[in-house]
Amino acid sequence: GRNITRHMSSQAVKELSGEYTYLSPIRTINDTDSVYVTFEGTKYAGLTMPEKVKLADEICEHINDSFSEFCQKTFNVDDAHGQLIKCAREVVYKSGLLLAKKHYALLVIDNEGNDVTHNDLGGHIKLRGLDLVRADTSPEIKKLLTKVLELILTNGTKSQVEDVIIDFLKQYNKKDTWEKGAPKSVRNISDWEEKLGIVKGDYTVGNKSVHELEQLETLINVPATARAAINWNKLRVIYNDLAVPQIMDGHRVIVAKLKPNPFGFKSVAIPYDMTEIPQWFKELCFDVNEMDASVVIKKIRNMTDALHWELNLDKNKMSEQFGDSVEEEW
Fold it and tell me: Span 185-211, mean pLDDT?
């Protein structure tokens, strides 16, 4: 499989540059069983987009024509079996943001022979591995990242991206502090409760103190999301508020970071769809700067660091949103 993919890559590069090698800047990325190549830096760079689409189809045909001879030489098979290997031209894209292995975004103009340019962007965005498709990115952060990505892929400027972020932060700052946490799914909380000696989710059973449970959680390395959910279940008992729902396996939650507190909790979860928030929860010491840094800033930087941009956001506007400590992160 690796030999076949390397040949496909090398032959694609040869079609554009004349050199048979997969170690070339023309081969921008490989994604398991596919290869992406660029026309930039070749004699075909000046072609129009329709001409590039046609050339991509021709390159695919030439690669398929080469497979039979390659398979005979490499795997010692006859011509009939060598012709079984085929590739297909998937997409032609106008621009791309390539971050890491299986983490990229492409502005596609032709998808498997279909013109997809009939929209305001002039193409369809293909995503792999970005925060935009992660379940722990909230819908509103996804909207922000979508706007930033669209600007990047359509030659938007750094200044335009900064303006979009500042406009978003003005509205984001109006949210309740706990709503700035990260959406998560809780898995196997019952297993972790059992290891902690909590019987069937009953936190009133046993004689361990809150601090003893916290030390035990650290000792057995309870995952952060499960620990935050367990902390919510503990607080129900501490505040004698068993009317609020207990978090159980499979529940969706929002995980909020906490400042140093008497319970020793670093984070706490809250059921995702709760509408009536208990007063004791609202009065917890939420670490807003930490949540903003991980939920907003980190995800933006994941996308823009590849461009080597230093986002120069207005310090007065930034301090309104995050405070001085987070300004320096930018």
Answer: 73
Higher per-residue confidence, 263 vs 23: 23
**Percent of the chain whose pLDDT exceeds 90:** 62
What does each C-alpha distance from 195 to 79, 108, 220, 232, 268 come to in angstroms?
Answer: 61, 49, 8, 17, 19
- The whole-angstrom separation of Cα 235 and Cα 237 is 5
Q: Supply the pLDDT for residue 327.
A: 40
Joined tokens for residue 216: 């035990």
Strand partners, 199: 202
Residue type, 143: K
Q: Nearest to residue 298, comparing CAs of 179, 144, 128?
A: 144
pLDDT at 209: 64
Distance CA 27, CA 42 (A): 12
Taking CA atoms, 278 is separated from 40, 155, 202, 232, 271, in Å, by 58, 47, 20, 12, 12
* Predicted local confidence at residue 319, as pLDDT: 47
With 0-12 / 13-18 / 19 or more C-beta atoms within 10 angstroms meaning exposed / middle / buried, residue 324 is: exposed
How far is it, in rounded angstroms, from Cα 147 to Cα 128? 17
Look up residue 94 and give its two tokens. Answer: 């106008």
- Rounded Cα distance between 258 and 298, Å, is 18
